[in-house]
Amino acid sequence: MTFRAAVITFPGSNCDRDMAEALRIVSGQEPLRIWHGDADLPDGLDFIALPGGFSYGDYLRSGAMAANSPIMRAIVSAADRGVPVFGVCNGFQVLTEAGLLPGALMRNARQNFICRDVELTVTNNQSLFTARYDAEQLISIPVAHHDGNYFADDETLDKLEGEGRVAFRYSEDYNGSQRQIAGVLNAAGNVLGMMPHPERAIEQAHGGTDGRALFESLIGELVSA
Hints:
Layout: E1 5-9, H1 16-27, E2 32-35, E3 47-50, H2 70-80, E4 85-88, H3 90-97, E5 104-106, E6 114-122, E7 138-145, E8 149-151, H4 154-162, E9 166-170, E10 181-185, E11 191-194, H5 212-224
Parallel strand pairs: 1-2, 1-3, 3-4, 4-11
Antiparallel strand pairs: 5-8, 6-7, 6-9, 9-10, 10-11
């Protein structure tokens, strides 16, 4: 099995090692580690991950400065070619700021930092990232964010739901996200952004393994393609 993944590190990323370990554990292969200042990606990548953290200290809008890092031009180009791209937490924020996903991530409704396990519903189990979950399956995944309140206008929200692009939904209102949206896909289905951290729910030692199926779905679908 050949699976070439890359994990992007921005100044302030703090979950890049978690993401790299999750990919290594599930795929059996070490992912490449790419610094944000690089202008190019290696040829032949199967997958790109944008991890969580506080890129550039989140001193502007979360993810806004990272969206202008040199490597992002190459990532946008790769996504446009169909390469799967996955952004978690701050990585989700970067994807929206870069225009790869619609909407924006705002300050949590109660202005508080949330760090806990939350219950999600798998809203779409027909995607590259969710194929090994059951439809409407309830899963427990950790969150750790201050700016996880997903916002989009009603027209965009209706389009996302009508096209099956809401991948995950919170089972209750944790942070004020519109329609309790926790993760969304792009129109082509090869870009996923989500606030919860599936890379922190890979092994029983983490307290649960509900995040593992996401990586198994992705790797299984790509290797069998």
